[in-house]
Amino acid sequence: MQRRMQPKVFDSWLAVDRKGLYCRPGGFHIDPHGPAEKAIVTHAHADHARPGLGAALATEETLAIMKARLGEGAPRSPQILAYGEVLKIGDVNVWLAPAGHVLGSAQVVIEWEGVRAVVSGDYKRQADPTCAPFELVPCDLFVTEATFALPVFRHGDPADEIGKLLRSVEQFPERTHAVGAYGLGKTQRVIKLLREAGYDRPIWLHGALQETCATYERFGIDLGDLRPATGEKRETMRGEIVLAPPSAITDRWSRRLPDPVTAFASGWMRVRARARQRGVELPIVLSDHADWDELVQTIDETGADEIWVTHGQEDALLHHIHMRGKRGRALRLIGFEEEDQ
Amino acid sequence: MRGFATLLDRLAYTPARNDKLRLMADYFAATPDPERGWALAVLTGSLSLRLPFRRIMTEMIEGRIDPVLFKLSRDYVGDTAETLALLWPGPEADAQTEPPPLETIVEELSQANAGEAADLVSAWLDRLDAVERWALLKLITGALRVGVSARLAKTALAEWSGQKLDDIEEVWHGLAPPYPQLFGWLAGEAPKPNVEEMPIFRPLMLSHAIEDDELDAIAADAFQAEWKWDGIRVQLSTMAGEHRLFSRTGDDISGAFPDVFEGLPENCVLDGELLVMREGEVQPFNDLQQRLNRKTVTANMLKTYPAHIRLYDILYDDGEDVRALSLEERRTRLEAWYARHGPARADLSETLEFDDIAELKQLWENARETGIEGLMLKRRASPYLSGRPKGHWYKWKRAPLTLDAVVMYAQRGSGKRSSYYSDYTFGAWRPSDDGGEELVPVGKSYFGFTDAELQELDRWVRNHTVDRFGPVRQVEPKLVFEVAFDSVHPSTRHKSGVAMRFPRVHRIRWDKPADEADRLETLVKMIEG
């Protein structure tokens, strides 16, 4: 790749408009926060994959999950783009690289006049048996998330965290372990990690989690014996593991379970106040986002001189970027949530 | 250290008492000496390292951690020790490196000054994972906040070993960390430690609040009645040549109250109420407070706030353990002891004459004198039992004050109540700046209602929410609680300027319109003296 001389001006072709990040020479948005005519979608989480898109470019997995979740709101003309397949749109070359975040998640690589930008969406470097691993793409401009951009966030070994859950199940065999997990990605990762740790009992699911698990299985990710928790007898659930959306584990839904141990699988569980605020008894520090070390490592490894920060704890990350002598900027995109909630 | 850190971590997140007991009992069973002994010392608050945490922290952070990142992190996490534990630089220790054992940590820290401690702790942190780092730093701050009382830790010992909690309490104050004799006995490998003659705290006999139906069932002649004094419960001991005054939890407060030992004979243990008395009159609790929480006392304090003990029971009478005797026999012993020795700074708690419960009620209703909190009823036939045995001693507090207050906020509970909005903040009316009326919070309570009522309240909160802040919901000001409380005091820490003591939900007034609830001035008028 030919690199232009300093200073590079990215704003002329990649900028934030009222719908989000927009590539002018390509004429498309990336993860627009409302209906848009042409969009590239990094992954299928609700704050990145909005309803009402016209033409949408994404991986096959992302499009399949969007279709299942959005129904009528799914993109009107979806187009599959496999990882690594280069597409020319207007004056730009575009391809997708795995982001390691959830099934189908991708970084968007855009090249224009010899300059390369990577919009990473959400990503992580930690191994995840339910999706393709993050692929590093050297670039001039790296657009990064900052969900866990404080040095206190350093996610531990996933196997240790799942071990904590299994030990608690052993120690409290008469209670149900109700694990709060985000429906896309975290749920399937928790299940897969349990299976890898040798747990082969049925795993019970809240109704809202079933469809996405089925989609994962269609893409060849075997999750073992899954059963619906809703409508099951209270006594059957003693000693069992139930997965539910985070909002359900400490709300009325959980009252059907016998003396539940409230667990929550999330990167936020690293901080005690966050866990206590949610009434969590068994915090499981497991995140699909890069932790502080991974953010710092990735920013360095891309070789980019300019870093744009989309959403999260941007102050700390910008401080770090400036200390490293790079240019950093907070995009302050609206519409992104703390999706690990 | 690893097992201990895991235990603290789980305890911090586990709300239910029985689950905490199981976690501790499992730990004591699985952990060798002396680690479990030191852990017990930490859990019961018997270990004080007295290290200057702030100074150690500052030394550890300097030159190692970017101050901007530390501040941003601290603001987010909300706790300095936790922040440092989470962001300690360097790789996360992997599970293969063995962290230093707890006994090494305690031993080396107890001999270190602040500078040395900073170096020691830094070196240890490099070998620990995040949970272990948190546990170590919490150990140094001295404030664990994992929701375990000394009593609960000892209850776990009892559950694990099968020994009686009373027996553990009895020997407890004669033993020191890491408690080798205690664990030897509990593990069935050694005899019970002998503390018979030692100048130590003996577990107190505690009372229950009396319920209406219990009161009705009481046979008047089976009980002794005394005033319940508003001082602090103490135990006086002059065993083995040592003069000690213990608080109800066994803390030695002798240094602050040298005056109470005046004219006291050797070899006795007595139970009574510590009061400040001037010219034969009990002074308000506030006067006593001037002398509490001090290591030493000035001559002026001794003169201005003279301490006095009102005796109500005797445990050791001239060296003889009389706890197995009935209250009636002990009372006779106490009176004879008092007649024999006549100590200058003590008198006997008067026993009240009554023929039936109706007469007792009369006494109780008229109990408004300074320093009297209500009545104590003690079964005449009961031996002196440790802890809070049922059916022996009752406290019957003065009728509570009540206020009709409006529910303003509701917060989710913890544990079994985490799906319920079970903690309520309520307010009273006062004039607002714009000439109207506004509610100002006057108290908070999470008990006093039944489970069925909680279901209803939870539903009501969800249907009347006007705003949400994390686990808290602001509700429409429409529901009135009749709140009961023991007393009300001026407070600069509350917006209303007053604070209630022991507020609880007495009745839910579904029927009462909120604008007919009480006004702040009504509450202010209830402030005593």
UniProtKB/TrEMBL annotation, chain A:
Domain of life: Bacteria
GO molecular function, one term: RNA endonuclease activity
InterPro entries named among the record's database cross-references: MBL, RibonucZ/Hydroxyglut_hydro, Xnuc_lig_assoc
Transmembrane domains' residue ranges: none
UniProt xrefs under PANTHER family: BLL1145 PROTEIN, CLEAVAGE AND POLYADENYLATION SPECIFICITY FACTOR FAMILY MEMBER
UniProt xrefs under NCBIfam families: Xnuc_lig_assoc
Protein name: Uncharacterized protein
From TrEMBL, chain B:
GO biological process terms held by the UniProt record: cell division; DNA recombination; DNA repair; DNA replication
Alphabetic keyword roster: ATP-binding, Cell cycle, Cell division, DNA damage, DNA recombination, DNA repair, DNA replication, Ligase, Magnesium, Metal-binding, Nucleotide-binding
InterPro entries, per the entry: ATP-dep_DNA_ligase, ATP_dep_DNA_lig_pp_1105_fam, DNA_ligase_ATP-dep_C, DNA_ligase_ATP-dep_cent, DNA_ligase_ATP-dep_CS, DNA_ligase_N_sf, NA-bd_OB-fold
One GO MF term: ATP binding
Keyword Nucleotide-binding assigned: yes
Reaction(s) this enzyme catalyzes, per UniProt: ATP + (deoxyribonucleotide)n-3'-hydroxyl + 5'-phospho-(deoxyribonucleotide)m = (deoxyribonucleotide)n+m + AMP + diphosphate
Protein name, UniProt field: DNA ligase (ATP)
